[in-house]
Amino acid sequence: MVNGEPRGGLTFRQVVLITAIFVVVTLLVMHSLINGLGSVEGVKGDAKAVTREAPGPADGSEQNGSNGAGEHGAGGYDDLKLGELPPGGKYTTKGSGKFRTVGEPGKSFGEGKKKFTYVVEVETTLKASAYGGDDAFAAMVDATLSNPKSWGGDPRFSFQHVDEKKLKNGEEPDLRIQLTSTETTAKTCGDTYGIETSCNYPAERRVVLNEARWVRGAIPFEGDLGAYRQYMINHEVGHGVGHKAHKPCTRDGGLAPVMMQQTISLNNAEIYKINPEEPFGHDSKTCRANPWVFPYGPKDS
User: Fold this and answer.
1) Cα–Cα distance between 118 and 241 in angstroms, integer?
2) How would you classify residue 101: left for phi > 0, otherwise alpha for psi between -120 and 50, otherwise beta?
3) Where do the TM regions start and end (predicted)?
4) Residue 1: is its pLDDT beyond 70?
5) What does the alpha-carbon distance between residue 226 and residue 229 come to, in Å, rounded to a whole number?
């Protein structure tokens, strides 16, 4: 010690004072952490509490929705009723019953002896520009049917997109693949289920594709519009080429048959609630969404 000061340059009184200040600051910080700054549920004051719409599992793995109706994309699917139209873009309700021919005829595919000619049409009240235009719709039809996973992969069938004006006098295409308003769809297909559906109308050889579904899709496809549009085409054309009956899910967790009513559900028992005449019964099997006739290639049956 030199002149009554400790070697570090601080007096005993200064050391005591610094220690006291440190203790007080420590106590204030602890008090703030416990009572002043926040809680587990959120932050007090004007800031909004952060919440989670769907808590994840404890192990940190991804959480999947049940039966294909869980949270996906924009979410909200859990709040929809069975067969209800998902939220999305605008669609046309008013119909004219008149159609314009769209697309480029000439495409031919498949090797089967049973040949189906078809034209592609859009109802005149529809504004197809919202989903790429008339030609985009026609191109989707052509691309779907020409895929070997579609009906063109069936060795019995072949297809040709034709120009109706060039057909022989009195001859009509085997299929009229049409995009229609909800009003025209209901008039053509009926409204038995009370939900937006598509249909095949064999009396006029019409494959009726509901624009509301083309724009919005269906709950089981969880926002995948591309796959759902392929399903719409393949399912309704399937009726047009002779597959009148619907098919149930046969293997729990497997891919759904394309002739299953996947717009409604992927679960047999749920479909039975809406359509008890179908061969689904109370079977609780649940499949996965599938847009294709032969999902593993044309040899698949």
Assistant:
1) 11
2) beta
3) 12-34
4) no
5) 5
